[in-house]
Every structure is written in structure tokens, then in C-alpha cells.
Amino acid sequence: MKTSGRAAATPQGKVSAKKPKSAKQESHLAMVRRARRINRELAEIYPYAHPELDFRNPFELLVATVLSAQTTDLRVNQTTPALFAAYPTPEDMAAAAPEDLEELIRPTGFFRAKSRSLLGLSQALRDDFGGEVPGRIEDLVKLPGVGRKTANVVLGNAFGVPGITVDTHFGRLVRRWKLTEQEDPEKVEAEICAIFPKSEWTMLSHRVVFHGRRVCHSRKPACGACPIAPLCPAYGEGETDPEKAKKLLKYEKGGQPGQRLTPPPDYPGLPAPPLGGAVAAP
Q1: Is the predicted pLDDT of residue 10 greater than 50, yes or no?
Q2: pTM of the entire predicted model
Q3: Per residue in 50-92, pLDDT tens?
Q4: For the chain, does the N or the C end have fewer beta carbons within 10 angstroms?
Q5: What percent of the chain has pLDDT over 90?
Q6: Could you confirm whether 149 is annotated as catalytic?
Q7: 24 given a catalytic annotation
Q8: What is the pLDDT of residues 193-210, one digit of tens each?
Q9: Over the chain, what is the mean pLDDT?
């Protein structure tokens, strides 16, 4: 009988992760095949993977992504409703008083630097792009506070242009999986792009980030509850006992609210509470 690379579920519904066999030196072709299998498995595990920032248009996504530096998507999502109510367009934000903008985005941290970036990019959008977010990476990275990561988020999710988003979760996981040894995000992006078809780049980014936030944590990955453990060379870095590992799962995998206040209809978890709101019981 053909078996999946994912961990098998026991009759009680518990996840039992198997330790991968110790491998010889892996060829490049074998690595590519394993990487693509990981992507297929993640697509089955997270068919609802999506950007975890709330947005209704390219401008909102651009602003939210800039704000997400050094904080959680949840905190950004809790902050942006009041921000976009006050400044719904680039023209509105470009004319904002810096102290008013700073106060609105204060919960996201580094609010003075982020305020300067938001004012600068809004003014550039108003003056150079007719108040519209450009759909080319060459133009996006010229905006204040916008690097390749932010540009790829906007292009992939607001314009449908494929891109790899290398954040801390993505970089951590692809290194654990031995798909790259690079530390520099642009070099990671280049090597991972060479492994996967272009059509997969954006969704691959979401799936990997979802897995990093829910299962493959930085300090204590839930190895014993990881459904792709047989494909992972780093199995054993975290908790391998299935019951103990299960307690480490986060967001919908742990029966907790997600990061979005307005998640997509197919998201199986709970919406996040607004700023200052109570967290709903699982």
C-alpha cells in the first residue's frame, strides 16, 4: 500500500511522527524531488494558506507589510482598522501630520521610523505613480521602507505576480530542510526560486510560513506532531514525543485564534480579536 510522507494518524486521531532515515549525501536531484514533495504535502496540510495580513487593496497590503517589521501580523491587523479609517488613500496618508500617524501605529513598535516610511511611500505614490501602487518590483523597491520581501508580498497577493517571500520563518525552515545554506534573504530567494516552478512561488511562501508559525517554531519545533517529519533532515531538534509536541501547536492547529481579524471564508480557525478585545475560547 502506498504511504504518504506525512505522519500517520492513530485510531484516536493522534499524530505520530516518524524519524526520517539517516541519509547519505543527498544529490541535487534528490533534494529537488524532496523539496517539491514537501511543497505538495504542505499544500494538503494547509489548503487554506493565505497572507495573514488584513487588506482590501494593494495600498492597504503595502502599508500593512511595512508595519509588520519587528512585530506580529496580529498586532498589525489590530492596528490598521483605525489607520485606514483615518487615511484610506495614499493622498490622505501623504498629508497626515507625523505625530498623528505615529500615534495610530504606535502599537506596532518602531513607530517613528515606520511613520517616516509610510509618509515617504505615500508621498511617492501620490507624486510619482498617480496615487496607485505600482505592479513592478523595480518600482516598489524604490519606495521608502520597501525591500524585496515587502515587494514580493504585494506583487504576489495584490497583483498575482509570483514571488518568494523570505521572512524569518521561511529562511529558518528552508535551511532546516537543507534546501539552502544561505543566510542572506536575496540569496535564499534565488536558490529557492531555482528549485520550484514559478507558478508555485507565492503559495509556497504562504505554506512554509504557515508551517513555521504553527509547527516548526524557532526555539522548540513540534517535531513529534509534524506531518512532514519523514522528509525533514532536522527532525529531533524539537520535542519528539507526540503528546508533548501537540501542546506546542499554535493558531488553528492548537485550537487558538489566527492572526487575521477578517480571515478568508475557508480558514478553519477562529478570527483574531480586535485590539483590546477578549480572545474567544477554543
Answers
A1: no
A2: 0.89
A3: 999 999 999 999 999 999 999 999 999 999 999 999 999 999 9
A4: N
A5: 88
A6: yes
A7: no
A8: 999 999 999 999 999 999
A9: 92
> Would you say residue 13 has pLDDT above 60?
no
Specify burial of residue 221 (Cβ count, 10 A radius: 0-12, 13-18, 19+).
buried
Single out the catalytic residue among 167, 178, 244, 246.
Answer: 167
Question: How far is residue 225 from each of residues 178, 187, 222, 236, measured CA to CA in Å?
Answer: 20, 31, 6, 11
Cβ 77 vs Cβ 183: under 8 Å: no
Question: What is the full DSSP assignment across the chain?
Answer: ----SSPEEPTTS-EEPPPPPP--PPPHHHHHHHHHHHHHHHHHH-TT---SS--SSHHHHHHHHHHTTTS-HHHHHHHHHHHHHH--SHHHHHTS-HHHHHHHHGGGS-HHHHHHHHHHHHHHHHHHSTTS--SSHHHHTTSTT--HHHHHHHHHHHS--------HHHHHHHHHTTS----SHHHHHHHHHTTS-GGGHHHHHHHHHHHHHHTS-SSS--GGG-TTGGG-TTTTSS---HHHHHTT--GGGGT-B-S-SS--TT--SBPPPPTTPPPPP-
Residue type, 94: A
- At residue 3, does pLDDT exceed 50? no
Identified catalytic residue from 54, 114, 149, 253: 149
